[in-house]
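ok here's the first one, seq then struct tokens
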Amino acid sequence: MVRGKKAQRVKETLPRRTTGRTMRDSDYAALAQFRFQIRSFLAFSEAAAAQQGLTPRQHQALLGIKGFVPAGPATVGDVARFLLIRHHSAVELIDRLAKLRLVSRVADPEDARRVHLKLTKTGEQKLRALSQKNLEELRRAASPALSRLLKSFRNPSSSNS
């Protein structure tokens, strides 16, 4: 049977199975608990953002602008990459944050086509308050539970039982 090019491409992009290891019930339970902990933290974080008058995406954008780029100011492209969204969606999000006076745009002195993003004083204050709440929640609830869960995941190279 002759396969088309599309079928060959799909097959090539599928992940290869590296071990013959079977999943245990405890593996499924650990993964389910892990996802529950992540969703619980995200729900907490979303509620905290709402208390600050922000959407979850706006909060994430502020965090990305402040903390995603290790050296130098963030750009719209950085925000898009951090949030896993398209560039034009990031532009719209930055427009809304600028309207709220949480972000300012600064022209790149070396390349006029690039725009650097900077948190305003109000943006810094909101992000600081949210980040403190999120870190407290991680220390209080999520961190111990996640630590236990991560320890429960077996090393894939260990026994296949």
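and now the second one, same deal
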Amino acid sequence: MRRLFAAASLSALMLAACQQQTAEPAAKQTTEAAQPSNGVSGMAPAFTLVDSEGAQRSLADFRGKMVILEWSNEGCPYVKKHYTGAMQALQRETAADGIVWLTIISSAPGTQGYVEGESARNWKTRFNAGYTHLLLDPTGQVGRLYDAKTTPDMRIIGPDGRILYAGAIDDRPTNKPEDLEGANNFVRAALADIEAGRPVATPYATPYGCAVKYADEQTA
């Protein structure tokens, strides 16, 4: 994936040269991307969230870079499966290639996975995670904007702002760590396709895991 960083830089230059053509109204982008249930349809919806350190982070901050979104919930057995080392390894692998990884927690206050304050600040240390930022979405606004269904639920956003992959992390919909061996990691496979300059072979896979703990929905 070493060429991804170079590709991102080139895309950033192209975006700067074509700024007027690509700067569509945010409402138009949101509508276009939010229509299909799988989330793959065009431009990624704009958003701003507060991170675990209390700083505001916007998707626009990373314009021109590859971005991965990961919905997480530390109490979910399916998340625990991937955080036995596989998710952290992928986070560090992508970071080495200049990719921004945003882990998002959309659990509502009082529900499984909700964190704030010190619990949010030490999340990275507790799980030896390698994400770029941990973003807090307690209202669930961003989760719904991206139609996030489960934890984990993944998105890959290209340097031009388009959603290139959405859905499951891999093809083994279980909560057993032993099933990681031999699994097809859809995120890693999609990044390999992008690096090779070919269409993503699997742009969408049905997500699996625990339901995102939105405030006005029953938890599961």
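notes on #2: The chain has a mean pLDDT of 85. The first strand starts at residue 48 and ends at 51.
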